[in-house]
Structure formats: C-alpha cells, structure tokens
Amino acid sequence: MSTYPVIILVEPQLGQNIGAVARIMLNLGYHELRIVNPRDGWPNPDALINASGADQVLENAKIYPILEESIADLQLVYATTPRNHDMIKSIERPESAAQRLAPLIKEGTRVGLLFGCERCGLNNDDVALCEGIITISTNPEFSSLNLSHAVSVVIYAFRMALENPLPSHFRTGKTKIATQKDLLSFYAHLEASLDQSGFLRHEKKRPTMIRNIRNIFNRMNLTQQEIQTLRGIIRSLEEGSSK
User: Fold this and answer.
1) Taking all residues of the chain, what is their mean pLDDT, rounded to a whole number?
2) What does the record give as EC number (predicted)?
C-alpha cells in the first residue's frame, strides 16, 4: 500500500488530462488513481497516449460510478477547489495541509485528494463529504489551472512534506479514525432517523440541510469508537420515541 495520498478524479472529461495526471503521479511516486464516472468511459486511448509511459498508473486505476464508493475505505478526504462553496470548512494551502497530514499518513491514515472535472470542478455534494478544502494560490486575474497542473502542485507539496514530516499531535488511542464507509453508514442511519422524526420534512430544504449536517461531523475527525457511540445515541433516541 502506498504511503502517499490517493488521487481521485471526479467526472473528468478529457482522456488527455487523465493521462497527464498519471504521468505526474508516477513522476512523484504516486500510484493510486481513482476515477469517478469519466465522461468518455474507460479505458480511454487518449489517456494512454498522454501518460507518456506511466501505463502502470492507468492500468491499476480503479473506476467508480459514484464518489461515495470511491472514498469508502479512506479515512480523511480533502477537496481541491478554489471556491469555499459557502460551507464551514477549513481552507488551507497545499503546503500547510501537507505538513499537517504527513504525520498521520506516515502512521497509516488513508487520505484522499479530490479533483473536480475540467468544466466546473467539484459540486457542493462532493465537498460536503470532505474534511476540508485545499486551495492553490494563483493569479486572481488568471486563475484557471489545467487539471494535471492542479494535481501536480498539490501532490508535490505532499511529497515534500512526507520526506520530512512534523511530529503528530493527534492520537486516537486504541481506536482509529473512521473510514468514509463508517461515516456514510452513520449518515444514512442519522438521516433515516431524522426523516422518521420529521426533522427533514421540507423537501426543498432537505439537500442543503443534509449537506450542513454532514459538514458538522466531517470537521470532527471522528474515530470508529465515536461513530459507534453516536449510532448508539441515535438508537437510544429511536427506542425512546417509540415507547
């Protein structure tokens, strides 16, 4: 298993860009590429051409129909986007995020870095599933970056940080940081309970309310034990309301 973050491309459009991403990944020692719902299907011959020899990254790339499946086994996921999406999220430069996360990655925490499609980037639902946002500082008068350029800036920062990580101060004791699968299962349980109680009864407001609720918990770096405790609380409330 790689000691580098997993690179996740969400609905990329051009095979050429996917190939260029694979090329810079292998240049910097990254091997795990995941692709969510590529527009032109997979495999894509244009990707292979632009990879310029980084065939192994493309051959081992995993394809997923939806984002949730692509991050299920990961513990921390960060969105790379120039916008804050009007959400309460930590926003960091690649260098500071890399320095903060490098000790956790060294200890075995599985981290994913999300990059959106070329046309519109990541949407609100994508970002709601992430612990924070990574933003690249660019010229405000010309801030458009090619997908592979954005990936290269971010993963270079992580490579440098992983070569000389700062001491970690986040300890989980005998438990571990919850995986995204744990979190998604918790969200499904919580949202079903809130539907039953009537809290999410306003259909027009429901998507925004769900995003806000997920944002609250995603900022907490919840452990597996904490997820179990929260689900126990929900079950207790459900049982109490049924008496």
Assistant:
1) 92
2) 2.1.1.200
Pick from 162, 169, 25: nearest CA to 99: 162
Tell me the CB-side half-sphere exposure of residue 11, using CA atoms within 13 A.
Answer: 12
Cα torsion 71, 44, 39, 98: sign: positive
Taking 70 as the threshold, does the pLDDT of residue 171 lie above it?
Answer: no
- How far is it, in rounded angstroms, from Cα 61 to Cα 46? 15
Q: Who has greater pLDDT, 140 or 214?
A: 214
Residues making up the chain, counted from first to last: 243
DSSP 8-state code for residue 117: B
- The domain segmentation of the chain, as residue ranges, is 6-163, 180-241
For residue 77, give the H/E element and its range. Answer: strand 76-80
Q: Is the pLDDT of residue 123 over 60?
A: yes
Query: What dotted CATH number matches 6-163?
Result: 3.40.1280.10
Is the confidence at residue 192, as pLDDT, over 70?
yes
Axis-axis angle for helices 147-163, 94-106 (nearest 10)? 50
- Read off the tokens for 204: 């027009």
In b/e form, how buried is each residue of 87-100, taking b as 16+ CB within 10 angstroms? Answer: bebebbebbebbbb
Fold annotation for 180-241: Helicase, Ruva Protein; domain 3 (1.10.8)
Percent of the chain with pLDDT over 90: 79
